[in-house]
Design brief:
46% of the residues lie in helices and 12% in strands. The chain has helices at 16-27, 39-58, 66-70, 96-106, 125-128, 163-175, 192-209, 214-223, 225-229, 234-241, 243-253, 264-271, 290-309; strands at residues 9-12, 32-35, 73-76, 87-90, 115-118, 138-143, 152-157, 179-183.
């Protein structure tokens, strides 16, 4: 697949996701603009990008001087940044009306052939596209967090997205070192979240029955299916294990799996303010400093795993 000739990419939104995407574009040689409505967010983004580049350089993960990469990034609050842009990835508030208003403002300003994308993880791409001038060039481009370490990018076609536009965004994601997939139907949760929440629902059910605690459930996932799924998807697993075996097990196990529409355990934790690492308490408790240590350990393991699997 031929990489699209992108020369003027713009990342909209200077939160954690947009800031990291900006760095990814710059690291891959793009002169990229980071746009945000407010200057303080841009200042924080600039500081973070510089710090991340210095950290990566110290770890020997850059092939270029970090200052040279940083110089490729322009920071602005001016809508003129979108004039003639040929690619936009939007990461602003996860609010349908806000996203639609944003695209109404910028889609008439970009180049006629520009590819426009939204990084929404929950809204329907077709609904966001109602704010887009010429929605045939618009699609979802959902990056998994943290986007510099997670390989998957889900490219979702809305009802009017052309196959050519989806293929072009797919090719761009490949050029950025990612493992993209094209989702041909605009389904809630895309692919990854549907799979993730199916597992979460069953994990919560097992916890509620008292069959196992969080530690045992997490260990079973990491060292069983999770270990396997780093190398094989569910259909590859079935083929290698025997479709007849999976059919036999599914006949008795599917009826016993949980199908609750609401998790009381999650609601109870939220009501109690036990929101996870950011609150110091969730399914596990985190003493001061342990949450950040957990994030750093996660990121280091993700990097090691990606180094092993990136050439597959």
């Amino acid at each position: 697949m031929t990489q699209p000739d992108i020369r003027r990419p713009v990342v909209a939104g200077a939160g954690t996701m947009g800031t990291t995407l900006t760095r990814i574009f710059a690291q891959h040689g793009f002169a990229v603009t980071l746009w945000n409505r407010r200057t303080p967010s841009l200042e924080r983004a600039q500081t973070r990008i510089a710090g991340d580049l210095d950290r990566l350089a110290a770890q020997g993960l850059l092939t270029e001087d970090p200052a040279a990469i940083a110089r490729r990034v322009t920071y602005t609050t001016d809508y003129a940044a979108f004039d003639g842009a040929d690619f936009v990835v939007e990461n602003i508030a996860e609010d349908l009306a806000v996203k639609q208003a944003f695209f109404r403002a910028i889609s008439p300003r970009v180049a006629p052939e520009a590819l426009l994308t939204t990084n929404t993880s929950g809204l329907r791409v077709t609904d966001v596209a109602q704010g887009v001038e010429d929605p045939t060039r618009f699609c979802g481009m959902h990056w998994w967090n943290p986007p510099d370490l997670m390989p998957l990018v889900e490219i979702t076609r809305g009802d009017q997205t052309s196959q050519a536009a989806a293929q072009a965004v797919h090719a761009l994601a490949l050029a950025l070192g990612k493992k993209p997939v094209i989702v041909q139907k605009d389904i809630l949760g895309i692919l990854g979240n549907r799979l993730q929440y199916a597992v979460m629902r069953e994990a919560l059910h097992i916890l509620a029955t008292g069959a196992a605690g969080p530690e045992e459930i997490d260990a079973a996932m990491k060292y069983g299916p999770g270990f396997r799924y780093a190398v094989l998807g569910p259909f590859e697993t079935a083929d290698l294990g025997g479709v007849d075996i999976f059919q036999a097990v599914s006949d008795y196990l599917f009826p016993d799996l949980n199908n609750d529409q609401r998790s009381q355990a999650l609601h109870d934790l939220v009501d109690q303010g036990r929101l996870g690492v950011k609150a110091g308490d969730g399914f596990y408790r985190y003493a001061p400093g342990q949450g950040e240590a957990a994030r750093q350990r996660r990121d280091a393991l993700f990097q090691q795993l990606w180094n092993l699997l990136k050439d597959q």
